[in-house]
Amino acid sequence: MPEPADRVAELQGYHDREVAPCTRCALHRTRTQVVVGSGALDADLMFVGEAPGYHEDQQGIPFVGQSGQLLTTLLEGIGLTRDQVFVANVLKCRPPGNRDPAPAEIRSCEPHLFRQVSLIRPRMVCTLGNFATKLLSGRPDGISRVHGHELPIEVGGHRLLLYPLFHPAAALYTRAMLSTLEADFARIPELLGGAAPASASAGPAAATPVPVPVEAAPPPPAPPVAPPADEQLGLF
Ligand code: URA
């Protein structure tokens, strides 16, 4: 396994050569720019959202709009800054009109996210909302069922703790969801302390890693806290 500094250099090169100029799907025709991700390239903690919105597409930085402000506030609440974590999305380009990511777009873009995870090697990845949670867990369970339930997974030979959370945009709509998100967020420091940092296997990470659950999932939690108020957003 390359040294951390080598992995940072490799990821920077990957971002510059493969992600920033990406034309793997048709979203490259409508985007202003690719939103690669932001933060520490060797972070212990990573957040994965859905896709850039208007402001992210304009600025080239993930989570800079209203939901980004909430994410920043929640991070500050557990003593962290945006610079100390890495923030990315399932899709690196904005879907026109902020529509849901299409399955084919997710398939085209997922190698970028898997490569980011396998080079950053975070101890824990918090998925924000349904799209990131389903992609990285490899399971169909919706976020209303699995939020707050950590799941060990493996990406590219790297073991980490997956921790699904409601998307901050959903919490902006519903007070109860905000309380749930805050409560789930409050467990991050404790979970991060116990998250396994070790390699799951020797040897280099696969070029296109696939997430593999390495332990049985916890029993399904109680019914959703709030009813799916806006299915169209795909956030619940
Ligand atoms: N919502 C997301 O999922 N990602 C962003 O970057 C902004 C809003």
Give your account of this protein's structure.
The chain is an alpha/beta fold. The protein has one domain (about 5-200): Uracil-DNA glycosylase-like domain (Uracil-DNA Glycosylase, subunit E). It has helices at about 5-20, 55-60, 65-75, 105-120, 130-135, 145, 170-175, 175-185, 190-195, and strands at about 40, 45-50, 85-90, 125-130, 150-155, 160-165, 210-215. Helix 1 (about 5-20) runs antiparallel to helix 4 (about 105-120). Mean pLDDT is about 90; it is low at about 200-210 and about 215-235. Bound molecules: uracil (URA). The site of uracil has 13 residues, from helix 3.
| Low-pLDDT residue intervals, each spanning 5 or more residues | 198-210, 215-233
Count of domain modules: 1
End-to-end CA span:
37 Å
Instruction: State the major sheet.
Output: 7 strands, mixed
The proportion of residues forming helix, as a percent range, comes to 25-40%
Compressed to H and E, one letter per element, the order equals HEEHHEHEHHEEHHHE
Number of strands: 7
Query: Would you tell me the overall average pLDDT?
Result: 88
Bound small molecules, by name, code or SMILES, are: uracil
Q: Mind telling me the CATH superfamily name?
A: Uracil-DNA glycosylase-like domain
Q: For the largest beta sheet, what order do the strands appear in spatially?
A: 1-3-2-4-6-5-7
The global form is globular
From the 3D coordinates, which CATH architecture would you assign? 3-Layer(aba) Sandwich
Structure summary:
Helices cover 38% and strands 13% of the residues. It is built from 9 helices and 7 strands; from the N terminus they run αββααβαβααββαααβ.
